[in-house]
Amino acid sequence: MEKALPRPYSVVHIDLKDPIRKLKSILEENRFILLLVDNGCLDIENDRDRVTLNSRDLCLLAGILPKKVQISKHTTALWALSLNPDHVYGKGLFRNTPALLCFLENLGFSKISLNAMDATLLLQRLRFLEALHHNSRYSNQWHREIRSFLQELWEIHMKYVPETLYEWQHTQVLAFKFLQVLETHFRRYHAVHFYADALSVSPDYLTKVVRDITGKTAKQCIEERLVVASLKMLRKKSSITRIWNVLGFKTSSHFSFFFKKHTSLTPSDYQQWALREK
Predict the structure, then answer these.
(1) Is there a single domain that holds both residue 194 and residue 146?
(2) I need a surface site. Which of 22, 205, 212, 225 has the fewest CB within 10 A?
(3) Which of 166, 188, 204 lies at the terminal end of a domain, its last residue?
(4) Domain HTH araC/xylS-type spans what residues (predicted)?
């Protein structure tokens, strides 16, 4: 039997069966943790904060390992999702959602008390992700589902904590907004000055800020996004003519030169190789 490929996230429902041991194991597993309390009460403490989670409370931890976890009620049950953004990014999950990666990396330690509708929505999605985690092979299906889940999480977080962006430094906010604008417009606009104008800053300042926050210049981010989109379309057997048109290149030769510069292969050579590897 062919061995299933590993998944860069895990989703579990924790109930009365030794919940503390299982929860501590999850908290030590990855850099990003989501906890959603189904029933009961849970206390979490780190170096600076202590929060009590009750039913329908959502807790998000990014890069933080709690010092103490205590379940206050014997009926406590909760959902936990753990995720390693670096590992997932390398596997392609965040290549289509760079703004979400920035969002996850800057969450820190936060608690949100959800209304019944939003709590039910997240609980349903977590149940579905758990089913995929245990029963499905590594596939585009769970890629799509977890991307969708994270997008919903982002929207819910901003609905309840809209001041989050203003708690960041100005440069973090600018880099985040650049990634958002890039995700919307990269197929049409390839020049840094377009994004600088959209964000009301100079191209040089935008380049400096993006490099300081992401380790890449604004131009490198734009080019990387185009390369990733090109690779994806080539693997899906899209014609090269369609790809350079969709991605906003002026001519086929312009696209081929760009692609070979970044991959050392022509688009047709890469497509043939990708098809052989399937």
Answers:
(1) no
(2) 212
(3) 166
(4) 176-273
Q: CB atoms < 10 A from the CB of 4, how many?
A: 10
Over residues 52-79, the pLDDT tens digits come to: 899 999 988 887 777 778 777 677 888 9
Region of 40 (left: φ > 0; alpha: ψ -120 to 50; beta: rest) is left
- Residue 18 burial (CB count, 10 A): 9
Three-class SS of 186-234:
CCCCCCHHHHHHHCCCCHHHHHHHHHHHHCCCHHHHHHHHHHHHHHHHH
Give the CATH number of the domain where residue 14 resides: 2.60.120.280
- Side chain identity, residue 194: F
Vertex 197 angle, CA 167 and 156, to 5°: 35
Backbone angles phi, psi at 148, to 5 degrees: -65, -40
CATH number, domain of 233, equals 1.10.10.60
Cα gap 76→55, rounded to integer Å: 9
CA 115 to CA 103: how far, in whole Å?
22
**Structural domain boundaries enclosing 269:** 170-277
Instruction: Point out the domain boundary residue: 146, 166, 186.
Output: 166
Are residues 26 and 102 both part of a single domain?
A: yes
- Each residue's pLDDT tens digit, 222-252: 998 899 889 989 988 899 999 999 999 999 9
What average pLDDT does the segment 158-169 reach? 70
**Residue 154 C-alpha from the chain's centroid:** 10
188-204 residue pLDDT tens: 999 999 999 999 999 99
What are the phi and psi torsion angles at 35 (to 5°)? -125, 130
Half-sphere exposure of residue 26: CA atoms within 13 angstroms, side-chain side: 24
